[in-house]
Amino acid sequence: MLKRIGNHAIDDTAVRIAEANYPQPKAWTLEYCPPVYESWNIVHIGMLLPEAHQIYVCADNCMRGVTMTAAEMGQADRFHCVIIEEKDMLYTNLEQITIEGVSDIIGKLPAHPPAVLVFTVCVHHFLGSDIDYIYRELEKRFPDITFIRCWMDPVMQKNHRMPDVTERAAMLDVVPQAEPEPKTVNILGADLPHDADSELMSMLRGGGYRVQELPRCSTYQDFLSFGKAALNIVTYPSFLYGAEQFSNRLGRDMLYLPPVFSYEEIDRELETLAGAVGVPVPNTADLRAECERALAQTQALVGDTPVYLDYIAHTRPLGMARHLLEHGFRVERVYIDVISAEEETDFQWLRHNHPDLMLFSTIRPKMRVLQRSESNALAIGPKAAYYADTAHFVNMVEAGGTWGYTGILKLCERMRDAFCRQKDLRDHVIRKGLGCESLI
Amino acid sequence: MKESYRILPVYAGDVSGACSALYELGGMTVMHDPSGCNSTYNTFDETRWYDKESLIFLSGLTDMDAVMGNDKKLIADIMTAASEFHPEFIALVNSPIPFLNGTDFPGICRLLEKETGIPTFYIPTNGMHDYTEGAAQAFLCTAKRLVEPSSEVIPGTVNILGMTPLDFAAPSSAGRLKSILEEAGFRVLSNWSVDTSFSDIRNSARAAVNLVVSSSGLYAAEYLYKTYHTPFVIGIPAGCFKDRVLKALEEAERSGTNQTPYMMARPESAAEYTMIGDPVIASSLAAAIELRTGKGTCVLCPTEITKGLLRSGDFRIVGEEDAEAAVRSAKTLIADPMYRLICSGETELLPLPHLAISGRIYRKEYPDLFSPDQMSLKEIV
After folding, report:
1. Residue among A310, A272, A284 at smallest CA distance from A387
2. Residues 59-78 of B with CB under 8 A from A
């Protein structure tokens, strides 16, 4: 039984979309972290690189989170760390502890891995550490190892790039130039494999293309062969920065085709893809009709049940909310802290057409003490599920690898399943990295 | 190299220790750290999120605020939150970047206290120490700032000092310890700090004796002894060692002298068992084993606060290399199961899951150290 501190109104935690600021509905203040952990972090992402090891160089408290992430996913043997102490910051230097610590760990490994993702941290920035010197020295000592220059620098993330964005870019940085194979494409997408049933995959298969993506790599060499792709298709916003650099460096074409909900936008993406790879556009009228049937069937089942959704479930939460509202669902809440520039159109549409839609912060302090709904709401995404305190939820992060019309069909299927079957909220949402192994 | 870890996780950090210590006391704890850094504590080092509310927040420090010394935002955000929640106290917890740029936490605390009228204090962490140091500093600040001075002593009463889920993760632990003490005729005035309240803590100065159940409780015990002359006993009443602790409590109350009952005569034979853990907990369990079996037990302490807490022949281990060398010849190792990763195949491991190292991995197997019959050690303690 939850021992409560008191009852609090929602005034400070939520705002009608009609009155919400863009892109940040509520200003930054103190932050609360709800006990919901299913999104992927930099450790999970790094583990997608087969055979590679990760070494973090940071203080104990910062290290704890990443070392336990690796341990919980059963990958402790590919994760190593070097602890920074006061003396390293005040009396000696971070370059020395970084170089010697990484070298010491590599020396203890039974065999050299082909690649090591080294994560330097906030204090390296603040002390002006000579990062190039660190890597020059490491590369001199271990010429057989590729060092991937990553950062765990959350102090930079509000004004610069997120650590996962720079990590993805750093990984692509080590892929060598190669002769492009015209029938090979990379999908630089979410951390879960792209849905093999999607129209995007069907079109590529139909055109005889070989598709490479990080979650399906089984060897480090598979990853290095990304340099052979003639085209890079980005489906996840966090890969965009790295993919642009990668494509420019290798002189490859790049398409940005994120999972979206508007039929017109899906069609535009399919046409863009078709033009780039020389395959016909599928019959989208049939796909639309199928989606309409699935949405109608789902809405009939769900009825007036309130629907809450969050930004963890999908990179287009407002697009999802709009699409569901357009199809008669009673979407009441979206849990979101910052609205992506990609969603400005949907934000404006929702302001005008559904002004009472509530945008809830996930991190403002009052979210800690706000009475969770204890509702029978149908939630989409783990944070929405947690705050709704519902057993009926679609357990999904990063769109679950879905895309396009099939993405909408699969979402409907999962909503129906969530409506009919209860899940143990507390057992699901506390696990880190949905889709990764979890030892807890 | 002691700073490098090939495979073992690091122990929970000082920030987690401080937050854990203050979790139930009705205050508002603010980590001055970048966004996302609270997830470490929330995810791996705290078991109470779903069952007990708390006010533990993060400042969301940015590079620009750190570089420009913009403490105004931190102060304004805390004042806003304080006006909404009316906490009993405000505690600020430091992390590496504010430590590096020399943020004036005592000054910020003075300002906040003046403006809000709420007791406000700084826990001197910096993210570079382990949880025992953070919790110990938090308990020390609690003793200094929150305990109501009193010259009255209530006979037969005891405070429990140093209990957090980081060391005592089984939910039944606090209740079972309380029962043990009550069955022995003591009344528990406060538990620092599980299943407790702000008012319990306020009344702590009236206790006849303090029981230090982990190294995290030591600094507060020493302060309360110096300030209120409350004697303390170091040890946990577990297994065959229980009666020694209870007798020590009586003796401490009677004589006013501090007691560490596990500093007793030990078997002279070579150690049969090796145990890794907090010095107070592991030494108490080792004493129980020695009383029960007559076989020696060597304690290896991987955490920072050890001064005066280790028995002769026991020692501190720093980092994975030290641990690996120390357990190499162990016949039977009693430790968190993560230590299996550095044991030889010939070492038998008796698992004693410890949240402060393995986090949630063994969350269904946390031992209640006060109910030895439920532990892997039931045959020997």
Report:
1. A310
2. 59-64, 66, 77-78
CB contact, 8 Å: A74 with chain B? no
The string of DSSP letters for B323-352 reads HHHHHTT-SEEEE-GGGGGGS-TT-EEEE-
Bridge partners for A359 per DSSP: A15, A334
Judge if B305 and B336 occupy the same domain: yes
With an 8 Å Cβ cutoff, are A60 and B128 in contact? yes
Does the distance separating the beta carbons of A369 and B85 come in below 8 Å? yes
Chain A residues within an 8 Å CB radius of B80: 29-30
Residue B71 lies in a domain: yes
Given a cut of 60, whether residue B366 has pLDDT beyond it is: yes
* ipTM for the predicted complex: 0.96
Strand order from edge to edge, sheet including A393-394: A14-16, A358-360, A330-335, A306-310, A378-380, A393-394
Which of B38, B40, B321 to probe by mutation at the A interface, max A CB count within 10 Å? B40
Interface of B with A in 170-209 (CB under 8 A): none
- Is residue B264 domain-resident? no
Q: How far is B366 from chain A (nearest CA, A)?
A: 12
- The domain total for chain B is 3
Torsion of CA B86, B90, B96, B99, to 10 degrees: 130
Domain membership flag for residue B129 = yes
Q: For B177-212, how does the pLDDT look when each residue is reduced to its tens digit (9 = 90+)?
A: 999 999 999 999 999 999 999 999 999 999 999 999
Segment A230-247, tens digit of pLDDT: 999 999 999 999 999 999
Instruction: Tell me the domains of chain A and their CATH numbers.
Output: 14-30+284-429 (no CATH), 42-172 (3.40.50.1980), 181-277 (3.40.50.1980)
